[in-house]
Backbone:
């Protein structure tokens, strides 16, 4: 009875880790140079210089990561909380908000946090290894969030999510998660094969993160009973 009461009590508090990660990313962004709201980084050209130095200090620089320097080895962790623009931040936080809550509920808070950090680190490290000669800085939580998407697909394939498609005039349409996420993964896979090592989106980190997340959830939970939620709506989406 005590264990059951504690489980119910934790569930009533909601996805604490997911909300905390979102809050941490937002606070770090607002305090950093990319938000443009911190006067300490200056304006104009001074802001650009400060931003470049900031990203190189806290982001992943592939040609520095495997030099053995302790500071460089920590950057895949710090880079998970750094974002390069408002659009970068809001896009990542939206995906984390929608898919993180149910994944956290299924895994539990401690396991979900470890899962998020470890897969995010490995996704960024894999991108750096594939582009070892690049001096372009890599930042963002995309690798970790992609892992959350992969785990969500494995754990809740029948859940329904609302998606907006530009070629359909941004009409909100609801599809099973497996359709939306496999479509998303296919786009990342194709983009990763076409992308270079220069500035842009690290699609390879998305592919690696998604694959790690799916494989982890499959190995970890394949012998346990899945949560039976027929066509459950994800957080932020209303029930039919």
Residues:
């Amino acid at each position: 009875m005590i264990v059951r009461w504690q489980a119910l009590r934790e569930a009533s508090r909601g996805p604490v880790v997911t909300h905390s990660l979102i809050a941490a990313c937002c606070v770090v962004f607002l305090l950093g140079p990319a938000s443009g709201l911190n006067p300490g980084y200056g304006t104009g050209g001074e802001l650009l210089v400060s931003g470049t130095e900031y990203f190189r200090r806290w982001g992943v620089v592939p040609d520095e990561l495997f030099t053995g320097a302790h500071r460089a080895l920590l950057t895949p962790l710090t880079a998970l909380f750094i974002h390069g623009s408002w659009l970068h931040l809001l896009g990542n936080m939206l995906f984390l908000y929608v898919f993180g809550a149910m994944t956290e509920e299924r895994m539990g808070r401690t396991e979900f946090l470890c899962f998020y950090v470890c897969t995010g680190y490995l996704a960024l490290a894999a991108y750096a290894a594939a582009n070892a000669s690049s001096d372009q800085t890599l930042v963002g939580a995309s690798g970790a969030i992609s892992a959350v998407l992969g785990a969500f697909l494995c754990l809740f394939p029948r859940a329904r999510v609302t998606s907006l498609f530009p070629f359909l005039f941004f009409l909100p349409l609801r599809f099973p998660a497996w359709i939306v996420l496999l479509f998303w993964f296919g786009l990342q896979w194709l983009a990763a094969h076409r992308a270079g090592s220069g500035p842009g989106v690290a699609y390879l980190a998305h592919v690696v993160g998604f694959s790690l997340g799916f494989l982890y959830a499959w190995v970890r939970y394949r012998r346990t009973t899945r949560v039976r939620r027929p066509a459950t709506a994800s957080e932020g989406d209303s029930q039919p």
About this structure: DSSP finds ten helices and two strands in the chain. Confidence is low (pLDDT under 50) at residues 1-8, 164-173, 225-240. The CA atoms of residues 32 and 59 lie 13 Å apart.
